[in-house]
Design brief:
The chain is mainly beta. 0% of the residues lie in helices and 35% in strands. The chain has no helices and 7 strands.
């Protein structure tokens, strides 16, 4: 599942940081276009761009309407050298401060606690523009 094929000469040993911008399948790539995408039960997803160069994608595919992340929930951690790892999202991760869209009638959240004990990391995320 997944994978990347690199043309000869594009990388140097295990250092994948010299990849041409846009030449990647990973979802942190700003030029990536997903096309049609849907998950029937809803989902919570984050793309966190950290100051140390890490990019963290979190996915919770069956969150509850109360804000629990549910299962499955995982994160991929992308390192500046191109290495990536998949880690479990802790069960105590959650969303809070809900609001309902007047247009769709769907419930959304403004605040999130996102914990990755496998990497000794916790994130508190609050939308800078409420109800957006």
């Amino acid at each position: 599942m997944g994978g990347v094929t690199f043309p000869a000469g594009l990388t140097s040993g295990n250092d994948l940081s010299r990849l041409i911008p846009g030449y990647s399948w990973y979802w942190a790539n700003p030029s990536y276009q997903m096309g049609t995408y849907g998950i029937g039960t809803g989902y919570l997803a984050f793309w966190l761009y950290c100051s140390n160069g890490l990019v963290i994608h979190s996915w919770a595919l069956s969150p509850s309407s109360e804000g629990d992340f549910g299962s499955p929930a995982w994160a991929t951690v992308w390192h500046p050298n191109g290495l990536h790892e998949v880690v479990a999202v802790d069960a105590d991760s959650n969303a809070s401060d809900p609001w309902w869209s007047p247009y769709s009638g769907k419930k959304y959240f403004n605040k999130f606690n996102f914990n990755l004990s496998m990497r000794n990391a916790s994130f508190y995320i609050e939308q800078s523009v409420r109800e957006s």
